[in-house]
Amino acid sequence: MTVTKAHIVESLQNQLGFTKNKSAELVEMLLSIIKRTLESGDDVLISGFGKFCVKQKKERRGRNPANGDDLILAPRKVITFKCSGLLRDKINYG
Q1: Quick one: 54 and 85 in the same domain?
Q2: pLDDT tens for residues 21-74?
Q3: What is the DSSP string of 22-85?
Q4: What's the domain count of the chain?
Q5: Which domain holds residue 3?
Q6: Contacts with 69 (C-beta within 8 Å, 6 or more apart), sequence order
Q7: 85: confidence class by pLDDT, cuts 50, 70, 90
Q8: Could you tell me the CATH number of the domain that includes residue 13?
Q9: Are residues 28 and 63 in the same domain?
Q10: Do 47 and 29 belong to one domain?
């Protein structure tokens, strides 16, 4: 099962007793902080969970899968995630 933003809002509402609007506002604020930080090129480290990093990819050769033509892919930024050792252990060993 995939956990959606609505599931997170509902969990906050049930576990902390917040209203649905307050829970949604908290989730939106958290996501907004993470987005702004990543947009500025900085990493986001959440202890016990993991680290979101912005990495620069260089220009590279590629191929159009529709017709097989070679092309050059422009440099771009990507976001990577590396989970913490604690989270990895919980996933693997319960």
Answers
A1: yes
A2: 999 999 999 999 999 999 999 999 999 999 999 999 999 999 999 998 999 999
A3: HHHHHHHHHHHHHHHHHHTT--EEETTTEEEEEEEEPPEEEE-TTT--EEEEPPEEEEEEEE-H
A4: 2
A5: 1-39
A6: 63
A7: very high
A8: 4.10.520.10
A9: no
A10: no
**Each residue's pLDDT tens digit, 61-78:** 999 999 989 999 999 999
For the chain, give the number of residues. Answer: 94
**Torsions phi, psi for 47 (to 5 deg):** -55, 135
Q: What rounded mean pLDDT belongs to the chain?
A: 95
Is 80:52 a contact under the CB 8 Å cutoff? yes
Does 7 lie in the same domain as 46?
A: no
Q: How is residue 60 written in tokens?
A: 């590279």
